[in-house]
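Justification of resources, computational component.

The compute hours requested in this renewal are based largely on the per-chain cost of generating structure records like the one below. Each record pairs the submitted sequence with a full structure-token output. That output is archived, and it is also reused by downstream analysis tasks.
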Amino acid sequence: MAPTLAAKLRSLRIGSGMTLEALAASSGVSVRGISDIERGRSARPHPRTLDALGAALRLDAETKAWLWSSLLVVPSRQGQGIPPAPTRDFVGRADELAQLTAILSATTPTAAVVTGPPGIGKTALIVEALALSSSSRHRVFLDMAGLDREEQSSAILQSILAQCGHDHIPTNAALASSAWERWCAQRSTVVHVENVTNEDQLRIVQGGDPDVIVASSRRRLSGLPVTKVLLGPLDDEAARKLLESSSAFDARDEVSLRALLAACAGLPLALRIVANRLSGDQLMTADDLVSRMGPDRHHVAALVAGDLSLSAALQASYCLLSTRAAALFRTIGSLDSRTFAIRDVTDASGEDEWRVIDGLDEIAEVGLIEPMSGLRYRALELVRLYACGLSEE
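The structure output for this chain reads:
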């Protein structure tokens, strides 16, 4: 079995001749924090923590990538990655589900990227399609969140090989790539990739020529010639069904139901948050929740249930924008309509038209707005309200 993050860090620390106290002093990470990682109590530390430890240990690029590769996969007893669990309340998406199911059954190497606005249900769709697939292909799961672009090749390949049962994984990217190619030539494999942030990440996986790659991404990854599955809001019937899945919801309260459906605007994450809040607080009624959400931008901040947060999901995409594109996104929040023309943004921002076009393309690339015909764009209502909140800060 491939070494865990705990074993890797301990081996590197001891090999450097450093005590826990010395590494803590050099890295700025507490002794307790380092100890928790080495004992396996902290299996997924913050990337900045590993950066600090790598700098203190003076790791070269390949060794740092070997250490980082542990964050791409949580090993099970079979050495495979553990993907997200299927959602119990999956509804709708019949056409997209049929499309992905067909891709998973393909007899020639194929790849698909599921993309769309934050909270639209990209991961849920992929997991549901995989659950319905009867394929006996070996499965590999990778989560690219927080992966350093400069070191992604070695880290991705090492994680893949760990899930394929390799005991001696090359730290050299070229050797690891060759091992991945040999595996795919001998074994039918499907790779599920989450949170892809750039085209090269998928090209690395494609290099082995696996049977199927299915990925989720906040970006449209326009540079990749793969099948794109673009998700939009749920239709009214599916949205209603998801909301009514809450055991605490009183289906007879039609007025509140319609108000909540309107507030969630067909966004699956928002609907699940509302359903979870109703289920988790037996004293809260649907009418109470409608009142707390309010009619304006404040109801975006109110859409929180435990570790589910609409604002956090939107912020993750917003943080991918350049400074100029982020300013244009805030400008979109000052507009009165969720559909707008390039001219509307140039007038509101005072920016040059071509700079606005470049900025809007960047915002569309991360899924926060959608291009339309006639040089127009549109944003989901909840996305527009989030931008509105940013513009008022």
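Residues 50 and 186 are 35 Å apart (CA to CA). The two ends are 50 Å apart (CA to CA).
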